[in-house]
Amino acid sequence: MVVYYPHPKLAKEHKTLVYTGSRSRELANSVASKLGLKLCDFRLSRYADGEIDIDMGDDLYNANVLIVHSTQPPANDTLMELLLMVSTAKRGGASSITAVVPYLCYARQTDKHTKGSAISSADVALLLQAVGLQRLITLDIHSVVCSGFYTTTLFESHLVHSVAVKYFIDLNLNNVVVVAPDAGAQKRTVHFKDEYNSHFAKRPELMADTALVYKTRPQANKVDSVYISGSVEGMNVILVDDMIDTAGTIVKSAELIKERGALRVFAFVTHGLFSGPALERLNNSQFEKVVVTNSIQQSPAVLASPKIHVLDVSDFLANLLRP
User: Fold this and answer.
1) Residue 8 — pLDDT band, cuts 50, 70, 90?
2) Is pLDDT at 123 greater than 70 in this prediction?
3) Which terminal residue of the chain, N or C, has fewer Cβ atoms less than 10 Å from its own Cβ?
4) How far is it, in rounded angstroms, from Cα 318 to Cα 18?
5) Which long-range contacts (CB under 8 A, 24 or more apart) does 279-285 make?
6) 8 Cβ partners below 8 Å, 6+ apart?
7) What is the rounded distance in angstroms from the CA atom of residue 128 to the CA atom of residue 110?
8) Which CATH class is domain 159-311?
9) What's the Rg (C-alpha) of the chain?
10) How far apart are CA 32 and CA 321, in angstroms?
11) What is the pLDDT of residues 151-204, one digit of tens each?
C-alpha cells in the first residue's frame, strides 16, 4: 500500500451519501453495500451535442459525499462526470467530498516530451482541486509523480497486490518468478514478490524470484523489440504491471518468456483497459490467465474470455473508508 498524505476517515457525525457515474455502478454499489449504505439517486443525461447534465438531489448540505467512479474509457466523458459531481457537491454545501477513483485517467502523462507537449496529469489535478475535491483515493497509479500535482487535495494510491496474491497462492504454483514487463514496473514487481513471499516464511523453497523484460518503444502503444534479464526456464511466471492498454507489450513479453522455456505464463494487471486489438491479442497469446481487477467495468466480451479473470476489489476499497 502506498499512501502519500495522511487522511481523515468519513466523519461519523455527518450522513454519508454515495454516488457514482455512468460506468462504475456495479463496483460502487458493492462498496456502498459493504459500508452499510446505498447508492443515492443520481440523474445523468446528455444534450444532443454531447454535453453532460447531472442532478444529485437536494440532500447534499452538511453531508459526507462519497463518489465511487472510475475515469475509464471514454476517459474525457467519465472525467467530466467526476468533475461535475464534485463541483455539484461543493455547491450543495457538502461537509466533505471524497472520490474513490480506482482507475485515474491521464496518469501516464506526467512530463513534457517536447516544448509544446501538455502535462495532462498535472492539469487533471488542477481541475479536481479547483472544483473542491478534498480527498482522492486511487489504485496503482501509473506514476508516483502524479502525487506531487495535488497540493490541496489529500492524495492516496494503493497497490492491491494482497488481493491478487491470494488468487495465485490458491493455484499452488511451484518455481515462481515475478516478471516486470518493463523497467517502469520494477518497483511494482518487487512489491508483489514481497507480498507473495510473505505467505511462505516457513517454506522458503516456495518463495518467488524476479526478472525484468526490457523493451524499446518507438512511439506510444507500439513496441519495437523486447529482451529479458533473468532466468525463466522451467518456471511459472507472473507478469505484473499497472495496466493493459492495447496489450502489445505484455503479449510480446509472454511470447519471449515462453520461448525462454517457461512452463506457464500468467499476468496480474490492476487496470484492464483492453483498447483496440487487446482482447484478440490476449485470446491468442501464450498466457494461461490474465488477472485484472474490477477497477474498470468490463464489457461482456471481456468477461466471456477464457483468458481473463476479474478480481473484486470492493472489500479492499471499503476497508480504506471504514472509520
Assistant:
1) very low
2) yes
3) C
4) 12
5) 279/247, 279/305, 281/246, 281/247, 281/248, 281/251, 282/244, 282/247, 282/251, 282/307, 282/308, 283/307, 285/247, 285/251, 285/254, 285/255
6) 96, 135, 154
7) 16
8) alpha beta
9) 20
10) 10
11) 999 999 999 999 999 999 999 999 999 999 888 889 999 999 999 999 999 999
pTM of the model: 0.91
**Per annotation, catalytic residue among 12, 90, 202, 215:** 215
- Domain spans of the chain? 14-157, 159-311
215 is known as an active-site residue:
yes
SS3 content of the chain, % helix, strand, coil (to 5): 35, 25, 40
Cell numbers linked to 213: 523484460
Strand residues in the chain grouped as ranges (E) = 2-3, 16-19, 43-46, 52-55, 64-68, 96-101, 135-139, 154-158, 176-180, 209-216, 225-229, 236-244, 264-272, 289-293, 308-311
Instruction: Select from 3.40.50.2020, 3.40.50.150, 3.40.50.300, 3.30.930.10 the CATH code of 14-157.
Output: 3.40.50.2020
pLDDT of 215 reads: 66
Closest CA to 159 of 184, 191, 185: 191
Residue 290 backbone phi and psi in degrees, to 5: -110, 115
By the 10 Å C-beta count (0-12 exposed, 13-18 middle, 19+ buried), 167 is classed as middle
In the chain, the N- to C-terminal Cα span, in Å, equals 18
- Eight-class DSSP state of 40: P
Residue 97 C-alpha cell reads as 467530498
**CB-based burial label for 85 (10 Å; 0-12, 13-18, 19+):** buried
What are 301's three cell numbers? 466480451
What pLDDT was estimated at residue 216?
64
Instruction: Give the dihedral sign, CA 25/26/28/34.
Output: positive
| Beta carbons of 101 and 70 less than 8 angstroms apart | yes
Query: Are both 14-157 and 159-311 of the same fold?
Result: yes
How far is C-alpha 87 from the geometric centre of its chain's CA atoms?
24
